[in-house]
Specification:
By secondary structure, the chain is an all-alpha fold. Helix content is 76%, strand content 0%.
Length: 251
């Protein structure tokens, strides 16, 4: 049945089928459909289908699909390129990082630029704070949220205290410069997500991790308090209060 659905003339049927297959954890099922999915990732006429096929290959961690992922990065569709880079970051993260750094110089658009930010952020390299800093004054709307997401990832990954502080300053600027409440709230959520991450690190009974987590939570606390106290949107303020109490306790 699924073989027929993957050949259906309607692109949304093919996409739906790929989305269903992506959730399949059975190795035999994955092995059966991998050749077809690889072909679709390269040759399907629909960029939505190519993107969905690349998502499947990434979720299944098909390392042999690097060829399809590398091909997809140069697709005319930013949606496909984004999916390809995400997949490559799973099966070959160092290669994905190098490509992301290069592609950033080509002024990418659409969904590709946020994915590039995320892939670079996942490495947590101190020198890459410049990527976040350069972007913070040039983004608006959804891209502001995407940059905040990348900065949150970076704060979790970097070993450098100075780089951590730089990424925190980026998210602080993004939150304080955003006029739309719903966007501001989304940015705040990603800031608190980083704090939750370090809160969880304390529970792992690793002395070095606990020391670093406590230090970084202390650095974040006044920044988060300032954003919470300045918030004018009632729903955001309620949410921030809940997050803050869960992480820091008290008021």
């Amino acid at each position: 049945m699924y073989h027929l659905a993957l050949k259906d003339g309607l692109e949304h049927v093919r996409v739906y089928t790929l989305n269903y297959l992506e959730a399949q954890k059975n190795k035999k099922t994955q092995e059966t459909f991998t050749p077809t999915v690889r072909t679709m990732a390269m040759k399907d006429s629909s960029h939505h289908v190519r993107s969905a096929a690349l998502h499947v290959l990434a979720t299944w961690k098909v390392k042999d699909a690097r060829t399809e992922m590398l091909h997809g990065i140069n697709d005319y569709s930013y949606k496909v390129a984004s999916s390809a880079l995400r997949g490559l970051s799973i099966v070959a993260k160092d290669t994905a990082y190098s490509i992301a750094k290069h592609m950033l110089t080509t002024n990418p658009g659409g969904e590709f630029r946020p994915e590039i930010w995320a892939v670079i952020a996942e490495q947590g390299k101190p020198q890459d704070t410049t990527v976040l800093q350069d972007a913070q004054y040039r983004v608006a709307a959804g891209n502001k949220i995407a940059l905040a997401t990348a900065a949150s990832i970076f704060m979790k990954k970097t070993e450098s205290e100075d780089a951590f502080k730089s990424a925190l300053r980026v998210t602080d600027y993004l939150a304080n410069s955003e006029a739309i409440g719903s966007y501001r709230g989304a940015i705040g959520v990603y800031m608190y997500d980083a704090a939750y991450y370090y809160k969880d690190q304390i529970k792992k009974n690793n002395k070095a991790q606990t020391t670093k987590a406590n230090r970084r939570l202390a650095i974040m606390k006044p920044v988060l308090e300032n954003i919470r106290d300045k918030e004018t949107d009632k729903d955001n303020k309620v949410e921030y209060d809940l997050f803050h109490k869960a992480i820091y306790g008290g008021n």
